[in-house]
Amino acid sequence: MHPVPISVPALVTGASSGLGEGFARRLAGRGHELVLVARRTDRLERLAEELRPLSDKPVEVLGADLETSAGRNRVIARLTGTGPWLLVNNAGFGTRGHFAEQDPKREAGEVLVNALALQQLMRAALPGCVETREGGVLNVASTAAFQPIPHMATYAATKAFVLHLTEAVATELRGTGVRVMALCPGPTRTEFGDVAGVEGDFERMGPLFMSAGSVVSTALKAFDRGDVICVPGMVNLAGATSVRVVPRFAVRRILEPVFRKR
């Protein structure tokens, strides 16, 4: 396959920092019209001002909290009935700790943003893509999608949902010209680690740790090829592959002390 035509606008969720900001910069450089989505509109406005000189295409700021139905509906309305899109479903966050001791509201919000919002936005974007046989969806999952993770139980479960949904829909759309891919990065230098409370542990993961720029670059190359799953980094790929042959009870026992709060 080849890059999505620059005539197809791109909508990036979670665009105010990290991977989302990285995707926005790269797609602006390619010449796509952009819609930037996040809660923090002040950051989006600053980013938009930086990106507008890179091309003659508009850069729109769309403030929305995807944890709320109003926020999700606002983005769904922008995606619905407006032709093909390149949707980058990047918004999400993680929590860490004993599941039974977690804040129920925050855990529910994690499911809403990581899973429900992603599914609803994907559903809104795809009809226009299928009709025109252009565009597609890049869903940001995680290497956490390949196994359960004690102490990050909800996060890993939501990313497994993203991976399975993406694979199934990509298979349904085979031959339509519409591409759908799950990006499964390992530890990445973004704000995720601070929010989830794993930043110190991430820093100890050595070769697993990647920059946001390298993850975005690898992801877009894989998306251009028409890949369905992208795991950036050879060490991360080996780890994601190995859990398929290791007994599940062993995987759980290995990961439990790794993610237990110290």
Task: Give an overview of the whole structure.
The longest helix has 29 residues, at 104-132. The chain is an alpha/beta fold. The chain has helices spanning 18-30, 41-51, 69-79, 104-132, 153-172, 192-196, 199-203, 212-225, 234-242, 248-259, and strands at residues 10-13, 34-38, 59-63, 86-89, 136-140, 179-183, 188-189, 210-211, 229-230. The protein has a single domain, classed as NAD(P)-binding Rossmann-like Domain (Rossmann fold, 3-Layer(aba) Sandwich), CATH 3.40.50. The strands form two sheets. Strands 3-2-1-4-5-6-9 form a seven-stranded parallel β-sheet, with helices on both faces. The protein has a two-stranded parallel ribbon with strand order 7-8. 49% of the residues lie in helices and 13% in strands. Strand 4, helix 4 (104-132) and strand 5 (136-140) form a beta-alpha-beta unit.
What characteristics describe this protein?
Rossmann fold, alpha/beta, 9 strands, 10 helices, two-stranded parallel ribbon, 7-stranded parallel beta sheet, globular, 262 residues
Please identify, by name, the CATH architecture: 3-Layer(aba) Sandwich
Number of domains: 1
- Average pLDDT, all residues: 91
The strand line-up of the biggest sheet is: 3-2-1-4-5-6-9
Helix and strand string, N-terminal first?
Answer: EHEHEHEHEHEEHHEHEHH
Determine and state the CATH class.
Alpha Beta
Write the CATH homologous superfamily.
NAD(P)-binding Rossmann-like Domain
Number of helices: 10
Shape: globular
Distance between the termini: 46 Å
| Sheet/helix structural class | alpha/beta
